[in-house]
Specification:
The protein is α+β, with helices and mostly antiparallel strands. Helices cover 34% and strands 20% of the residues. The longest helix has 19 residues. The chain is extended, with a radius of gyration of 34 Å.
């Protein structure tokens, strides 16, 4: 195999690696894929650009001129000019190029290295005290990323927590349990915690802390891989119990939170998945929030004398649900898709359109009924026809996900009917969620609701937003649709994976089809209990 010289560039290394790739019988597709990737011209160009930039960086370049804009006036306008010089002067004095030269001069004349304040006069004396530590941090307008508390026994100001990803955490110099003595030379021994917090937040550019380290400094915690789906609304500015409102992390039901620290049993540190903010925020722990909900319910019952019962089958208090990323593997049965819809959503019509477009991939479970079979019907196609005694027995044995009576005949959808669809490697679409939220079915819940105008100045007839082709509806009917959507959101909102706003049947069908296709090839958040079972 050829050997690279010591000065070989990255793009040369890449070229040599590409030439050595030899497909074999076991990994032929992988090797061909790698060779195609490494052979891309755009990748080679990027490698060359990278090398040039690194080479230029190693030279530690400095500006040739600190006032390029003055060169135009001094050199070109100093005497008679030729035609070419006049043209050059015209170009250099155009607004765009003058702006570029001005920016160049601004950057060239500034020193962007952080400037730390001078050491304190008594620094040498402080070093004689082995326990004292001087910490200097360079920060921008972001918070320091640490909270403090007053030790009740000693009166000392103690670092209560260090927010993951904040300036203090990134420095690695400030730890939980450290005693804070001074901020920028100002003693904090007799200041209130809120005064100290204000002093810290007002410090810009650089900040010097005099700290007595904790007796045993905590090791820097590894970032947690615990993810939680929020099941309730939280705004730290409305929470009087939070130790620091500015450090709180607001979230809404359905948000995915990465809990990076659970050291404090009352206040966890978390980041919102998808948020670009590196600093973690405080959120109430599961136990603390459940206790808060419990106390809030007691207060309401005490004032009204009425109990507020939770929904059957739901946890008493909805706080967080631990989740993980899951992607359907080729050998697994398709996930169940649950469509729940508010008044006017017409989800049955939506299901039938999607299935009619691709009956080989999507289907509904064949329901059971006690009514007599009609002449054109076939067993197991339109319905499973059973006796009333058999239907009642299945209902008592919890074999139906939902059932009811219509014109003295009973109808219901069984769990086995759903399994039968999945056994054919088809995605089953249902409109009932009860008893199906398990690791076996891994349901993906889509909430379909029509677009409804917020208000109407006059009670006139309106074109239905539920499809446009279904006639006209009144303001009273619109209000019923709003109330229906609100009720579903209150009851099932924490379980919804996707909200589909229905403008019309065609666009809603196309959007649902896109959701189903992505569900088969992309990873989604699911309760971790579904994977562990």
């Amino acid at each position: 195999m050829p050997v690279l010289s010591a000065g070989a560039g990255l793009h040369e290394t890449l070229a040599l690696l590409t030439s050595q790739l030899r497909p074999d019988a076991n990994h032929k597709e992988d090797m061909v894929f790698l060779k195609d990737v490494f052979s891309e011209k755009s990748l080679a160009y990027l490698m060359k650009i990278h090398e040039k930039l690194r080479q230029y960086e190693r030279q530690s370049p400095t500006p040739v001129l600190h006032s390029a804009s003055s060169l135009v006036a001094e050199e070109l306008q100093s005497g008679p000019m030729s035609v070419e010089e006049k043209e050059l002067l015209h170009l250099l004095t155009s607004p765009h190029l003058r702006a570029v030269l001005s920016v160049h001069d601004t950057v060239a004349q500034k020193n962007f290295d952080p400037v730390l304040p001078p050491l304190p006069d008594d620094f040498e004396d402080e070093l004689e005290e082995e326990s004292v530590k001087i910490v200097r941090l360079v920060k921008n307008k972001e918070p320091l990323g640490a909270t403090i508390r007053r030790d009740e026994a000693t009166g000392a100001v103690i670092v209560a927590r260090v927010m993951k990803g904040g300036a203090a955490d990134r420095s690695g110099l400030v730890h939980v349990g450290d005693e804070l003595r001074e901020v920028n030379g100002i003693s904090v021994m007799h200041k209130r915690p809120d005064e100290i917090s204000q002093l810290l937040s007002q410090s810009q550019g650089s900040i010097t802390l005099k700290i007595i380290p904790a007796i045993k400094e905590e090791d820097k915690l590894k970032e947690s891989k615990v993810y939680m789906r929020a099941l309730f609304d939280y705004n730290p500015l409305d929470d009087k119990a939070t130790p620091c409102q500015e450090a709180g992390l607001p979230f809404k039901p359905g948000d995915i939170l990465q809990v990076v620290s659970q050291d404090d049993g009352t206040w966890w540190q978390a980041k919102k998945v998808g948020d670009s903010n590196l600093r973690a925020g405080l959120i109430p722990s599961k136990q603390f929030q459940e206790r808060s909900f419990r106390l809030s319910r007691k207060d309401r019952q005490g004032s009204s004398g009425e109990a507020n019962a939770s929904e059957p089958g739901e946890p008493e208090f909805l706080t967080y649900e631990e989740v993980t990323r899951y992607q359907q593997r080729p050998n697994e049965r398709p996930r169940l898709v649950v469509l729940i819809g508010s008044l006017g959503a017409r989800i049955n019509e939506l299901k039938q359109k999607v299935i009619a477009e691709n009956p080989h991939r999507y289907a509904v479970a064949v329901p059971h009924t006690t009514r007599p079979k009609k002449s054109h019907e076939k067993e197991g196609v339109e319905y499973h026809f059973v006796t009333k005694q058999a239907f009642d027995a299945d209902a008592q044995n919890n074999k139906f996900i939902e059932y009811g009576e219509y014109k003295e005949n009973q109808y219901g959808t069984s769990i086995e009917a759903i399994r039968s669809v999945q056994a054919k490697n088809k995605m089953c679409l249902v409109d009932a969620l009860h008893t199906l939220r398990t690791g076996e079915f891994k349901p993906y819940v889509v909430f379909v609701k029509p677009r409804i105008p917020e208000s109407r100045r006059r009670r006139s007839a309106a074109t239905s937003p539920a499809g446009g082709e279904h006639g006209r509806i009144t303001e009273e009917e619109l209000q019923e649709m709003r109330q229906s959507a609100q009720q579903i959101e209150q009851q099932y909102g924490h379980l919804v994976d996707r909200v589909l706003i229905k403008e019309d049947s065609a666009s809603a069908c196309a959007e649902l089809r896109g959701i189903l296709e992505r569900l088969e090839r992309e990873a989604f958040w699911v309760p971790i209990s579904w994977i562990r079972t």
